[in-house]
Amino acid sequence: MSVALRAAVGDLAPRVLVTLGSGLGGLADEVADATSLDFGDIGLPGPTVPGHAGRLIAGTLAGVPVLVQQGRVHLYEGVPGRDVAACVRAAAEVGVRTFLVTNAAGGLRTEQHPGDLLLIADHLNLTGTNPLVGSATFVDMAAAYDPDLRAHAHAAAGDAGERLTEGVYAGLLGPAYETPAEVRMLRALGADAVGMSTVLEVIAARAAGLRVIGFSLITNVHREGGTPTDHAEVLEAGATAGPRLAAVVRALLPRL
Ligand code: HPA
């Protein structure tokens, strides 16, 4: 247990950990009565990618006591799976009960468009590792993305004037984007979106007994015959569509 995190949380009793993916960073500025902590200050491994902040912000968002995670550690940085999920474990230790996770992802379906919002119904952990390695924790993953919370998310999206499509998120190691053959493989496996985060964090969250709700912001769509994937375009699409997902998150938080 991090003494610094416990002190920063004070009497807040945060209910939800909100992890912000690319494009959603702006939500961190909306946290009221905020105490901002660098990962390093609370004993958590920080991102090694230049320009990626690693911060945990305690405060209230949409009137709900929360911890907001800005910046995350990715497996492709070369860290163990356990480190990728360190923030989730720390949040659980200070009493958080729900994990609201967001990410930027590539779309795998022909009917998708950049800017679509996908509600994660299930995942494929294709990273080749697991945050519970070494612990012999056999966690049930049958309803990892909570069906009741998904119903709340659809209602919140309606209030925010948005529509969510449910789908399966495939989490890969990265950092290379997918080849056309890998895209065909992922479709054949039943994936609707692909990214380089989330799955390990969600496994750790379920192991800690947290309820999980997850969103993918579709920043690019893999088309038949191969589509070049450009990191700058991924970031730009995230920045453009991010405020729409932020509106859904704001509408959803009070329902959690
Ligand atoms: N592949 C993997 N990760 C991603 C993508 C993608 O196409 N888009 C955004 N993150």
Plain-language structure description:
- The protein is α/β, with parallel strands linked by helices.
- It has one domain: Nucleoside phosphorylase domain (Rossmann fold, 3-Layer(aba) Sandwich), CATH 3.40.50.1580.
- 28% of the residues lie in helices and 27% in strands.
- It is built from seven helices and nine strands; from the N terminus they run H-E-E-E-E-H-H-E-E-H-E-H-E-H-E-H.
- It has a five-stranded mixed barrel.
- Helix 3 runs parallel beside helix 6 and helix 4 crosses helix 7.
- The protein is globular and about 55 Å long.
- The two termini are 25 Å apart.
Structure keywords:
five-stranded mixed β-barrel; binds hypoxanthine; Rossmann fold; alpha/beta; 9 strands; about 260 residues
- Biggest β-sheet description: 5 strands, mixed, barrel
Global mean pLDDT: 93
Classify the beta-strand content into a percent band: 25-35%
H/I helix tally: 7
The name CATH uses for the topology is Rossmann fold
- Quaternary state of this entry equals single chain
- Strand and helix order: HEEEEHHEEHEHEHEH
Low-confidence stretches: none
Highest CATH level, the class: Alpha Beta
Structural class from helices and strands? alpha/beta
Helix content: 25-40%
The figure for the number of domains is 1
User: Which cofactor or ligand species appear?
Assistant: hypoxanthine
Termini Cα gap: 25 Å
CATH H-level superfamily title = Nucleoside phosphorylase domain
